[in-house]
Design a protein that fits this description.
The protein is mainly α and 188 residues long. It contains 12 helices and no strands. 44% of the residues lie in helices and 0% in strands.
């Protein structure tokens, strides 16, 4: 076979061979500021405002207080609580993960952000999934799409990963009571 014929055969085989499916990177944490873009509507439950006034939003900043420093010292934690892994694992979103798990604009110092409870948002934050208009017209279908794209609905198991006796500030945790403080459900 001449060179042109061999090249043509190779190209034909290459074009007819199915390509591998695209490899998708793991979802990344985008941060509360990205969530705010859609979740700060005044005509709905203002999820961002509820979060921003919560202890979750202030979780990292709380570690700089004198009372947090005293609790950390009492628990045997040396140095700055804002640098201590034992504190950061529950006071920031995604602590301990490498940088590939975070979008460039993510700010860890924003505390326990939306995605600590709802999962990394790169896949489900798109307008094709979390569109207010689409949710209004077919909530169940859009909700299924969001769940399929990684949105998680927190439950008691989610909360007790941090709200437990390992915390030196723990005074008990009753899920239904704490849930009432932070709930921010979408209006139907």
């Amino acid at each position: 076979m001449k060179m042109a014929g061999k090249l043509g055969a190779i190209l034909t085989v290459a074009m007819l061979t199915p390509s591998a499916p695209p490899v998708h990177a793991a979802p990344q944490y985008v941060g509360s500021e990205k969530c705010k873009i859609c979740h700060n509507r005044k005509d709905q439950v203002n999820q961002f405002e509820i979060w921003s006034h919560s202890a979750h939003a202030k979780a990292y900043a709380t570690l700089a207080t004198d009372s947090a420093k005293a609790l950390a010292a009492k628990a045997g934690i040396k140095g700055d609580p804002q640098q201590a892994p034992e504190c950061l694992e529950c006071h920031v979103t995604g602590f301990g993960l490498d940088t590939t798990h975070f979008a460039p604009a993510f700010v860890q110092e924003n505390g326990v952000q939306c995605e600590a409870c709802h999962g990394p948002g790169t896949a489900y934050k798109s307008a094709s999934i979390l569109s207010t208009t689409k949710y209004a017209s077919n909530r169940e279908e859009q909700h299924k799409l969001a769940l399929g794209a990684g949105l998680t609905i927190p439950d008691e198991k989610t909360c007790v990963k941090c709200h437990n006796k390992r915390s030196p500030a723990f005074t008990g945790f009753v899920f239904k009571d704490y849930y009432e403080r932070i709930k921010h459900q979408y209006k139907r």
